[in-house]
Amino acid sequence: MRSRRWSSPAEKRYNEAALNSEFLEFRGVSKSFGPIRAVADVSLGIKRGEFFSLLGPSGCGKTTMLRVAAGFEEPDVGRVLLDGRDITDLPPNRRKVNTIFQSYALFPHMTVRDNIGFGLAIAKRPKAEIRSEVDRMLELIRMAGEAGKKPDQLSGGQKQRVAVARALVNRPDVLLLDEPLAALDLKLRQKMLIELDLIHDQVGITFLYVTHDQAEAMSLSDRIAVMNGGRIEQVGAPAEIYESPRTSFVAAFIGDTNFLEGRVRDCLDRDYCRIAIAGLPEIVCFNDKVLEAGKPIFLSIRPEKIHISHDRPEESARRNLLPAVVEDVIYLGSNTKYWVRAGGYRIQVLRQHDRYFLDEKPLRWKDACWVWWHADDGFMLDHFRKDDEALLAVPPQSVGEPLNGK
Amino acid sequence: MRRSRFPIAVTGLVLAFLYLPIIILVVNSFNPARYSSRWEGFSLTWYAKLFESPEIWQAVKNTLVIAVSVTAVSVVLGTTAAYALHRWGSSRLQRLHYTLIYQPLVVPEILMGISLLMAFVAVGAPLGLFTIFLAHVTFCTSYVAMTVLGRLQDFDFSVVEAARDLGASPWQSLRKVLIPMLRPGIVAGALLAFTLSVDDFVITFFVAGPGSTTLPLRIYSMIKFGAPPMINALSTLLLAVTLTAVLLSQRLANRRANSVTHN
Amino acid sequence: MRRRRTEWLASLPTLAWLSLFVVVPTLLVFVIAFRPSNPYGGIGAGWTLDTIRALATPSYLVIAWRTLWMSLLTTAICLLLALPAGYTIARAPVRWRNRLLLLVIVPFWTSFLVRVFAWRSLLHPEGPVKKALDALGLVGPDATLLYNPAAVVLVMVYTFLPFTILPIYAAAEKFDFRLVEAARDLGARPFQSFRKVFLPGIRRGVITAVLVVFIPALGSYIIPDLVGGPAGEMLGNKIAQRVFTDRDLPHASALSAVLVLAVLAPLIAVLVLQRKGKRSDIVMGEAP
Q1: Total domain count for chain C?
Q2: Residues of C with Cβ-Cβ distance to B8 under 8 angstroms
Q3: What is the mean pLDDT of residues A19-27?
């Protein structure tokens, strides 16, 4: 994410203050549809100018949150505030908020120009102003030549750009995007991702982006809220979410990970502690929590942080070393995924091929090997739920075995 | 996989069966002979006789007056009903609503006819063009509602939400977005209502009064009291008119007009 | 609350209209069945059960029975013809499908009265069909094709056939024909796979088709009136006779009440079946 250039120290201070205030706020919002609780007591603050994503599987409540912000759903409980003002009771047409719909929802009986100008026409702006604003938008999305076309004559990417222009021309305080890239194929999606990013930088409006695709969320967002079952699991910058997941859901939903279960033995010093795990040698882990001996703990280690080799590496104080047996080797070109068994655990290891070593003996099935990782790379979770293990794609060991070997 | 010829053969027979009487009817309308068994050459005598008959013209006038007014009213009622049924489909009110709208479609015409007759008699209303109008609106509305409802099923409602999102009031989004997009379906429904009203016999028979003869009623009395071959000519004309209306209606109902689709 | 108000506003016009012109009149029919006939025509004063008791007379029972079996026969024949037809149209290439459907629907959209009249001319003793059959020696010169139950059934089948084909087609169109291929792959003969895989698969279409013939057939009036004669009289023309010839509204109401109940019976049966199978509403196929 590129940062904007500030013009003066005073302006920078003002902008920083504005940046740090909560611009779009959800306070204790709950919404149910009949017996289904779509959103359960969610509070969230989004900063001005942020690119904020709601990330989660389908049914987690993220779209409902968006619709509450837009005014298409009324929360059963809770308030929504925009720039300090309570907008919960305002109908959608009275909010300074615009939505990009998943199906784009372009008006089929109007041209591109009329589509983009719709909001301004409703607001009864003078014709000259509408014309110039629409032209400006057409420039921004580079579709000045297609202004007279109807939506059914446009490609998917073009439709999306028109939808964005139609929303932005009204200079909303917040732009809401409901999985706008879901309908596009992979190549187009990658291209539109970059375009969205550029538009955000150029225009500087607050974006609230809803998606189930972690790659989209991670690459575009300033901050992400991971949602599951109507609740927020964690809010933070992408790196924070990835490297320091608070719950097993966040750890398993985003990328891959390994879960180890154990008890705290004792604390080595202020920063590290020792954990006893059944079947494995003692594990050392970086400690950012207040812990006492005997407390049960769940560890999450990402596969790319684990190293693997035939030969036993040197011992090191902060290194966790385990003997293991290779169970599965999946060659992926730029890297290889290994499934190894150590103690009672099946551990996933991701190894990048950054050098091509001619004489290196490849690790094969049933080989004895060594895996290790640095104590800093394991992360202790605040909450662990057994169900979240199902999110890890552990391969079955025989035909007919339920997924994840359970 | 080799397909059995049997279904196709049956379909062919069915189609032949369906068209036989109609073809014979149309052919005979050009036959100047009194009894259709003898073909006496191509002639337009019966058509000419039709134009000269004042009762026929009166019936045509009555039929058209009723059909146009019925269409206007039932389109408004039916479209509103379809919108409600689609928008709030699963609520208890709408389920009751749907059952009610469904009734005229399922109930045999004679039941509708007699129940309306009883109602008018009980209230003391004089039977005439107005009672026919009321009866026709009752069943035409249901057909319009079903036609428009069918179109609404394929309708992407996020377009209406988009209009609201961009500042339009509920009424504005209805006027500027929903209705223009529904236009083909509404017109299809209107044509359907028109045709049904022009064609209706049984219900009209029960609720008509003296002096309020419509075309179907006139045809019936012509059939019952001697059958001048004028009927063939009249029927052929009626056939042509309703056919045109219905073909237009089908065209509009089936056209995948301008809906935004995913790529 | 805001949403509720708009819902009521939008539903009110049709709800009010239909309650007034459908529900109330139907109730009225049942009410008037309990009143005596006025010998001078119209409805008499007071309440009585005589009108209803009069329903049990043999002549009525004969007509009721005739109406029932003729409707059932019509339904059966229509189904037998509609199943292959619907199947063929659903399997036809897309371009042909719409044309075939249009061909099926068009006769329906000619005036109903006119079509029945056309059949009357056709079946007339001086008409072409009789002459053809005569020439082939299939019928004697004195036989009448008109004014009997067979003629009524024939014309009813003719009238209701398009109604039957459409729901069968609609269901067949949604049917995944690869299931039939799978059945053939596993050894079933064509008719077997038709019976065991296709028919159950279009069950809902068949049910709709049956309803769409059986119920209107029960209430037929014009067809028996024009081609049935006294031997082919059905409930429908009995009711009309009571109203227009005899001016006996209470008896007409009583008969109509019977018809209403007869019509409700299959509808409720289907509803109960639906609840058991937990399926969603039967769609009447788009009204042609």
Answers
A1: 1
A2: 88
A3: 80
